[in-house]
Amino acid sequence: MKPRLASLLDYYYESMSPTLQALEEKRLAILSSLKKAALMLACLGTVLFFVLSRTNVFTPLHAFLLSAMSGFLIFMFIYRHERAGYDSLFKDLVIEKMIHFLDPSLIYAKMDSIDAHEYERSELFNEAYDRFSGKDLVRGEIEGVKVRFCDLHVEKKVRTKNGKEEWSDIFSGLFFVADFNKTFHAKVVVLPDVAERSLGILGTWLQGVNPSRGELIKLDHVAFEKLFVVYGDDQIESRYILSHALMERIVAFHQKIDKPLYLSFVDSKLFLALHYTKPLFEPILTRSLLEFKSIKDYFELLMMITNIVTEFKLNEKLWSKR
User: Fold this and answer.
1) Distance between CA 177 and CA 147 in Å, rounded?
2) In this predicted structure, what is the pLDDT of residue 203?
3) Among 108, 130, 322, residue whose Cα is nearest residue 236
4) Membrane-spanning residues where (predicted)?
5) What is the pLDDT of residues 95-137, one digit of tens each?
6) DSSP result, 53-83
7) What is the mean pLDDT of residues 169-182?
8) Long-range CB contacts for residues 91-95, cutoff 8 Å, separation at least 24
9) What is the distance between the alpha carbons of residues 23 and 224, in angstroms, rounded to a whole number?
10) 51: part of which helix (H) or strand (E)?
């Protein structure tokens, strides 16, 4: 039986809270240092602005921008220096403890991630990428099902209208891999149905002529079809994988999570990607660690992830294997 929120509350006050006092003091010291640095840089920036604006080299606007940018860059350097070590300690004392509280058999490696080969193997995102990074890898067995998941960030370099290069996200968020309880040989990719919802019939036509994805698979589940577009290389086996019951579970999971959801079924494995706009397991400096609500959000996120196995019934041998 999985731990509930009430049991985490007991665990937090009995086992975690005493050890978090030192980390809380470190957090407060960092905040104090950052406030002092911000105040000092604001003063220095103001002085720099007046000095530059009185020269013939800079206009007042240029002097302001140069002063503000210099202050910002120096502050970011101080910010990263000050919190160096805090994030790592937070993960040791909070994230790793909660993972082991949920399931002592799970292994946590805060600096590791799913590798690029596995990401490509999922075929969820076909765009070429220029930067691949991840962290907070968790691996092990949940309910007898082998799983791996991590916080993943994949980016590409793009050129703006002004000719400048910028980094653009291909994917950022939770990447989850688990053994699927059916053996299959076909590949099935389930993506958010953006085109049909935006363009209607034209979107459906465009989905049907996407050569990089394979055959368009139309399914007889209305709610699922409204949310997702499905590609596969075998119509029959795609329907064998995406049973009506599984589509029901995917729709329910999507409604509960309410985030862009990507799924693929490759080599008898389930790949799942959930898009998040912020890192999953990073500490928030403005939150006290001595308040349970600061910890609760991380616990609920971990519960949601580990519950994927039971949400999709990956632990149940519902179907005979071919």
Assistant:
1) 6
2) 59
3) 322
4) 37-55, 61-79
5) 999 999 888 999 999 999 999 999 999 999 989 999 999 999 9
6) HTSSSS-HHHHHHHHHHHHHHHHHHHHHHHH
7) 93
8) 91/136, 91/281, 93/16, 93/19, 93/20, 93/23, 94/16, 94/20, 94/283, 94/289, 94/295, 94/298, 95/136, 95/281, 95/298
9) 45
10) helix 17-53
Encoded tokens for 219: 């399914």
Instruction: Report whether pLDDT(294) > 70.
Output: yes
Helix axes 17-53, 60-83, angle to 10 degrees: 160
Percent of the chain with pLDDT over 70: 92
Report d(CA 101, CA 68) in Å as an integer.
46
Q: Cβ contacts of residue 180 below 8 Å, gap of 6+? A: 241, 265, 268, 269, 270, 314
The rounded distance, in Å, linking the Cα atoms of 131 and 191 is 22
Which pLDDT score, from 0 to 100, does residue 196 have?
Answer: 62
Q: List Cβ<8 Å contacts ≥24 apart for 257-263.
A: 257/304, 259/173, 260/192, 261/192, 262/124, 262/125, 262/189, 262/190, 262/191, 262/192, 263/124, 263/189, 263/190
Q: Which residue has the tokens 């105040």?
A: 39
Structure-block tokens of residue 72: 């910002």
b/e per residue, 164-185, with b = 16+ CB within 10 A? Answer: eeeeeebbbbbbbbbebbbebe
Between CA 181 and CA 173 the distance in angstroms is 25
The three-class DSSP label of residue 39 is helix
- Half-sphere exposure for 312 (CA within 13 Å, toward CB): 29
Backbone phi and psi for residue 6, each to the nearest 5 degrees, phi listed first: -60, -40
> For residues 30 and 25, what is the distance between their CA atoms, to the nearest angstrom?
9
C-alpha closest to that of 224 among 205, 238, 210:
238
Tokens read off for 270:
């389930």
Model confidence pLDDT, tens digit, residues 227-274: 999 999 889 999 989 999 999 999 999 999 989 999 999 999 999 999
